[in-house]
Each structure stands twice: as C-alpha cells, then as structure tokens.
Amino acid sequence: MSNYRIQGATGEWEVVIGLEVHAQVTSNAKLFSGAATAFGAEPNTQVALIDAAMPGMLPVPNKECIRQAVRTGMAINAEINKYSRFDRKNYFYADLPQGYQISQLYHPIVGEGSLTIEADEKAGIPEDKVIGIERIHVEQDAGKLMHDQHPTMSYVDLNRVGVALMEIVSRPDMTSPAEAGAYLSKLRTILRYVGSCDGNMDQGSMRADVNVSVRRPGEELGTRTETKNVNSVRFVMQAIEHEANRQVDELEAGRKIVQETRLFDPTTGSTRSMRSKEDAHDYRYFPDPDLLPLILEDDFLEDCRNSLPELPDAKKARYETELGLSAYNAQVLTADVDTARWFERLLAETAKASGKQPAEVAKQAANWLISELFGALNKLGTSLEASPVTPEKGGDLLALIAKGTISGSAAKQVLEIMLETGDAPEAIVEREGLKQESDTGAIEAEIDKVLAANEDKVAQYKDGKVALFGFFVGQTMKAMKGKGNPQVVNEILKSKLG
Length: 498
Known about the structure:
Arc Repressor Mutant, subunit A, alpha+beta
C-alpha cells in the first residue's frame, strides 16, 4: 500500500486514481476504412469516404486492429470475449462527421486483466503491486480542430477520424502519482513489446484520461474528476498532484467536488474545468445497426496467443535466473523493448566473437551497456537507436577484453574513438597501439628488472609488508606503458615474490 498522503489543514487525505489509456493500434489502415494513419501527414490527406461520413458508406472492421486488441488482452492475462459488439456513442462535434462515435460499451472485446508494477522505495512504492484492468474496448478516434490557423475561424483536420484506438480502463487501484506513473510506463512497455501500439505519447498515439478523487483514509470513494488527453508520464503525475491538492483545498473550504471533465496545462502544471462530466446515458448508446457482432474463433485466438513475444516480466526473470544478472540490470535492460533487443544482439555477438557461451559473457555485456555505452551516449545526447556503435561492434569490443587483447582502461579509449568515427574496434586497437601484452616472456623480463631495481622493497615484502605488492604491479605496468596484461602480471609477480 502506498504511503502517499496529502496533508491538509484539517488532517490527512488519501488519493484514489484510475486511468483510461487510449492507445492507437498499430495497423495498416483505420478501424473501418482503408485510409492511411501516418503521423504528420498534411491535413485531410488521409480521409476515406467513410471517414468523412458520406451517405451510403458502410463500416467494415479491420481484422488486424481486432487481432492487436486481442493480443494486448492476452499480454495482460485478461479474459478475451469471444462475443463482442459495437455501439454508437451519439454526440455532435465539428471534428466527428458522423455525429456519433463507434465504440464498445456493453460488450467489449477484452474483459478483466491486470499488470504488476515493481517496488520502488525512492518513489514511495514499497512493494510490488497488482493493478486491475477492467476492460479493453476498441473504438474509432475523432478528428482535430485547429484554432491557431486563422484569426476568426477554426479549421478541421479529419486525418485522425476513424483511427483505431484501444481504450484500456484500469481499476481505481492507484493511490499516488508514482503508482500511476509506474502503471502507465509498464503498460507502455507491454504495448511496445506486443507491437500493438508504438507508445509515442508525444505524437498522440498514446494518451491518458486521468480520474482522481480524494477521501479521508478508509472512507467511501469521493467524487471524481476526469482530466482528458494527458500525453506523457510526467504530465500524468503532475496532473494528479495538482488535481488532488485542488480537491483537498475545495473540500476543506466547505465546498463540494463537481463531477466534471478537466484539461491539463503543461506550462503551469495545473488543471482547469472544461465541461460537466457526462454519464453513459447522456450519449444515448445503442448497438450499431451497420455492424454485426464480432465472433472470435478458437483458431484465431490460438494464432494470436502464439504470436506473442516473450514479455518484459518473463524476460526479466530469465535474465536473472539463466544469465545471472542482478535484478537492477535485468530491470533496466527489459524496461524498453528496443533496449532488450539491442542487448540480446550484443550478447549473441559477444559470445560469437569470444567463443564463449552467452551466459558466460552476459554480466560483462550488461555492465558495459548500462555503465559505459549508456553513459557515453547520454553525454552525447544520442539515443541507443542512433548510436554509431552497433551491437556487432560492441560485441567485437567486449570480445577483445574477454580474450585479454586489450585492458579495461584501453577499452574506454576505444569506445570513445568508436563513437567519434564509427570505426571497428580491432582497427582502432591496431592504429592506436592499444594491444595488451600477454607474452609471459616479455612480462617476466620487465618484472625481473623491477625487482632488481627495488631489492629493499622486495625484502620488506618478504618480511610481511604485503601492501607493497601493488607497488610492484604499478612499476611493472609503468615500465610496459600500461600494456601488460594485469592478470598475467599478477600471476608472475606472485610466483616470483613467493
């Protein structure tokens, strides 16, 4: 249970949060038309006749959109409803040419499911927590009004009309902004793994309606407000923080909370009233007469299940048990599907180049990716996807370390040059003269010189001053200009010093 509370003038208040996430389905067309859905297209260039609500146009469901919704439901261990039905949600607005939205109210395609958010002590999430998901239904998006194109008129862009959305409705199981942020991040991760939504919140392909209410701890639920279309995890957390505190201030001033729809202003981090909240009966829902019910067959469901990839929780567990990674490293590497794919390619290439099994080089690869490459890319302001260092080149670099060809410090130099030039690590090592000396004969000759030049310290060492061992290592490495293999240097020194 979250320990998050708002300290009001009259005592503590508890926050209750539910999210309705609208996720744009990754598909080849809109939900009921063949129009394209590319982001950033010129206004009104991706509009079929049915999107524009021309007379006589009949909707036909896009099978891929249905498939992706089913796969998403399976990924959250939800009940898949073999029977579902489309309804008309009636309201008039300038960016909705039909005068109604085709959605699913009474019989959604996906029923109850859940996902687990991980403990995060720093964020105030003391333990893993299961967040219930009430349903997923599919519906068509509306268009977009543009108010900044003309001084006295608003323009309408219908490109988004009919775009397929999954509305993923959580239970009111979250009790802090941190829990809501963790839930939204985890849901986005799952959608990206499944491939049912790209999760690009900045492009509007995933956005959240945030339901917030406050109450005294343990009391009945309070009146909720809904803040619409919040398009980042950080903004969702800010909206909850502001709205919860606003409600506490209202209640403590003796006023009532009005059930309403609100908007979030990211420039001020505050919410403002938009309109009174409608209930389902206000939309006059009824079954869409142009669409037959969806009946899902067992073969279709089996194909959907078999197409699912390894999901983040399962991948994280495998990284810990089979590869021996720490829980932290496993979490970092599986939190984003692109990172996980990059790591697995790096792991395969490192094993191949070094002649070792993946499990033998997994810790080295994970540490290098998280500590070295992520750190370097962060300084450059570059993403992993745009990195000049590919998994193949990264694997070659790690293999050079594993084989003892270069030292760890030399590897850092090689990485810097790889990021600047994109050159292969072997070529850089040869060009810069960074190859590590592992020839026992050459190393032994240098050690003999060091010991001969420091006979007094050798005597002190043999008399028990063992801390001098580091001195001999340092002198040997200095004599070899840092190119001696530390492991070989240590072994020969130990044998000679007794």
